Amino acid sequence: MAETVVVVGAGPGLGQAIARRFAREGAALALVARNPQRLAGMVEELRQGGGTGHAYVADAGEPKELRAALAAVRESLGDPSVLVHHVSVPVLGRPTEIDYDAFARGLAGGIGGLLVAAQELAPAMRTAGRGTILVTGSRLALHPSVGYVGTAVQKAGVRSLALTLAQELGPAGIHVATVTVNGLIQPGSDDEPDRSAEEFWTLHSEPGGSWRTEVL
User: Fold this and answer.
1) Which overall architecture, per CATH, does domain 4-215 show?
2) Which of 45, 59, 63, 165 could crosslink 176 through cysteines, CB 3.0-4.6 Å?
């Protein structure tokens, strides 16, 4: 039976490249994002390439919406064995000037979205004794920039949550890892989408006993 892979925060670029990479292996893709038109285009691209994709509309920063979307995934596709958390909420501003509501929305979508998704999907992975949770990180988590404090704090929190999830869930057979994106994700760069997506697939494919928890 084909694996079900959920990509929360699916979008063009790396999110779509990750979906394509897993679809090549026969996985059914559940794409979760806020924009229904963009989701429809991504699903169509997967299908034209011979893959299987399904769209679920939800804002990762709204817990009720995200829980409902993941419940719909389970109902229609079964329990996912792979979660890819690819949410990044850009928040500009210096620490003394940043808008508080924008700062809070970034934390809710990035850190809160990962927490909700893990809480929703990890129980079935525990029962199965296997599963993978992969998280898109950022160099800002390690090297914060004064003009991007909102994104830096968000990504630092996402990194910490991913690493602590790895500590908690690893003994249950669930591989949790984070991949740090060091620059703009665009063709021709070191973080070219398909090249970065291959790293996600490699992490998922790692045998037990040699799992990495962080790719910098």
Assistant:
1) 3-Layer(aba) Sandwich (3.40)
2) 165
- CA 43 – CA 55 distance, rounded (Å): 7
**Residue ranges with strand state E in the chain:** 4-8, 28-33, 52-57, 82-85, 131-138, 174-181, 214-215
Helices (H), 108-148: 113-128
- Report residue 149 as tokens: 């404090």
d(CA 85, CA 176): 11
> Distance (Å, rounded) from C-alpha 15 to C-alpha 7?
7
Return the residue matching tokens 């079935």.
Answer: 124
Tokens of 8: 């929360």
Question: Averaged in consecutive runs of 10 residues, what is the pLDDT profile of the chain (216 residues)?
Answer: 91 94 97 96 96 97 98 97 95 96 96 98 98 96 95 97 98 97 58 87 94 94
* Domain-wise residue ranges, the chain: 4-215
